[in-house]
Amino acid sequence: MRNGVKLTTALLRGLQRKCPCCGEAPAFRGYLKVVDACSHCQTPLSLYPTDDGPAYVTMILVGHLIIAPAFMFGFFYEYPLQVVVPTMVISLGFVTLAALPYVKGAFLGLMWYLGLKQAR
Ligand SMILES: [Zn+2]
User: Fold this and answer.
1) Which of 15, 81, 85, 94 pairs with 31 at a CA distance of 20 to 30 A?
2) Which residues have C-beta within 8 Å of that of residue 50, sequence separation ≥ 6?
């Protein structure tokens, strides 16, 4: 526990794009930009680096939950490659970009829970 917050609570608050410490205020301003500090509890959220971690996790999730199962469906093999590939690439792009902010929130929650701040 950190500040009386369990790991699962910190991850769920992050998934909701809220401050992992208090869960009250948004942790992001805009699409992926983390706020400097929580407006409710003043936790310095910008000190917790997420770097490329959320992108890797998002790619792994999309790859394992969407791309791999897609091979099991018949449509994948019935339509011409010129139709399947652009359709899959565009739809996977949208899914990846939609999931990324939430995965980044959860990653921020994990970094906050573990206390992994940037060295300054
Ligand atoms: Zn807060």
Assistant:
1) 85
2) 34, 104, 107, 108, 111
Q: Name the residues around ion ligand 1, CB cutoff 5 A.
A: 19, 21-22, 38, 40-41, 43
Q: Are 50 and 57 in contact (CB under 8 A)?
A: no
- Mean pLDDT score across all residues of the chain: 92
* pLDDT confidence band for 70 (50 / 70 / 90): confident
The answer to whether residue 35 is domain-embedded is: yes
CA 23 to ligand 1 centroid distance, Å: 6
* Token pair listed for 48: 């917790």
Does residue 99 form part of some domain?
yes
Joined together, the tokens standing for residue 26 give 């948004």
Q: Give dist(CA 25, CA 16) in Å, integer.
A: 10
- Domain residues for the domain of 49 are 7-114
Residue from 2, 93, 86 nearest 43 by CA: 2
Spatial CB neighbours of 77, under 8 Å, sequence gap ≥ 6: none
Residue 26 bridge partners (DSSP): 18
